[in-house]
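Subject: Mammalian cell entry protein

B.,
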Amino acid sequence: MKISNETKVGALTAVAITVLILGFNFLKGKSTGGRDIYAVFPNVEKLVTSNPVFINGLQVGKVTALKEKDKNLSGIVVTITLTKDINIPRNSVATLNSELLGTTAVNVYLGNGNDYMREGDTLRTERSLGLTDKLQKSLDPAISNINKTLQSMDDVLQKLNTILDPNTRNNLQGIVANLALSSASLQKLLNSETGMLAKTIGNLNTITSDFARNGPKIDSSLSNLQSATDKLAKARIDEAINSLNRTMAKLEGAIGKLDSKDGTAGLLLNDRQLYDEIRRTNRSLTILLDDLRVNPKRYINISLFGGKDKKGPLKAPLDSLK
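Prediction pasted inline below.
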């Protein structure tokens, strides 16, 4: 049987319309299979149909519908179509999670009960921090610290403006200029080719090289000098010791003679009788000399009239008579 072209076109059009409807429903999140459960949120955070539903990071369904709870918009009923056969305890909790790119997803945190959700049941919900809230919470301390830092900087600048009067600024400019000159001078000094430090190091290297070349000669000279010094020191010490020994010998001899009664000094030191006689002789001689000075006529007999001095002789020196 021959099929007409009109029939073919009609059948193809019907198939295309069916595929279009199914695709549109799929894109809208509608599906002919799966279980529907519900969750009521006060704010859906820009949630739309076909957004994913996750349990433990695994996508288990999609959002298939959003509807206001009442005319006062006290809540928004979200229809969740589960595409996987998963047991969800009744004490599970659904939250909204805003991702970085602006997509909002439903996260279901499983409870620990043994009674599970059935078709048409409603999940408990909790408000979680959205991306904006999380960013705000994270940035609040940083913003506070930045504000404190800016305030501190403002205080420092105000104090600097107060301290840095024109005279102080001029002084600081002079100090900076002097530092620049010092830096230039130091750079000139430290120049690896023409600097004074380089020349000094070169001279030191030359001197060190000369010392290295003349090291044996210097060692020999130092050895000779050390030997001469040792000999001189030894000779002087020996000479001093010998001289001291001679002096000690003479001193011992003199002391021995003083202790001996053979010499005059020894007799004077050791013979008490001789010492006493010498004292008496010295006293008598002193008396005689004093008498001679006082009564010269008694000893020199020159008289024009033949008379003599009738005074008696002195019995003691004149000094002792006063």
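The longest helix spans residues 215-259.

T.
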